[in-house]
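stage 2 :: seqdesign
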């Protein structure tokens, strides 16, 4: 019961936080978070395909939009996150529930893509590289065990709530 309330409340809370936070602050947080979580991958060159190329990401139900790239700075690669970019090569749209499932590997990007929960448009080659990267990232190895376990439980509960809401919406459509 408590997890259900948390699942229902979290997207509203995050949407409010995104709306209130200055875009530069939100981007700074995302940049640092990515830099910490994916530090070893960045150093190993896993993100080199993003060098000087931009991907625009939108988490639709949170109202979160940002652009991400990888840039060389002082002989080291680092993430660069900005609120806007005029020259994004790939556009990615996903909702909160699908993003959680994707990040905890409860569902693969192809499944989300074919269910129209993950939209990738733009440069086909770069889009495939982004999709393949999403499929190989294992947060379980990058986060403290307890944190990852809680995130996975939360993702599962969020997916169940989302499915129930979709089923209810479809049944209302039939009634009309």
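stage 2 :: out
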């Amino acid at each position: 019961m408590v997890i259900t309330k948390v699942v229902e409340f979290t997207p509203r809370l995050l949407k409010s936080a995104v709306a209130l936070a200055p875009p530069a602050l939100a981007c700074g947080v995302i940049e640092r978070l990515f830099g910490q979580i994916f530090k070893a991958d960045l150093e190993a060159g896993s993100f080199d395909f993003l060098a000087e190329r931009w991907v625009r990401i939108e988490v639709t139900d949170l109202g979160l939009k940002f652009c991400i790239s990888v840039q060389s700075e002082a002989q080291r690669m680092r993430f660069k996150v900005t609120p806007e970019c005029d020259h994004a090569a790939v556009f990615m749209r996903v909702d909160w529930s699908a993003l959680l499932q994707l990040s905890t590997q409860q569902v693969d990007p192809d499944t989300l893509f074919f269910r129209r929960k993950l939209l990738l448009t733009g440069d086909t080659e770069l889009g495939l590289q982004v999709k393949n990267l999403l499929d190989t990232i294992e947060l379980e190895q990058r986060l403290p065990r307890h944190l990852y376990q809680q995130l996975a439980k939360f993702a599962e509960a969020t997916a169940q709530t989302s499915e129930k809401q979709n089923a209810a919406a479809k049944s209302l459509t039939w009634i009309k």
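stage 3 :: structure notes
- Residues 145-175 form the longest helix (31 residues).
- Strands lie at 55-59, 64-73, 76-82, 90-94, 118-122.
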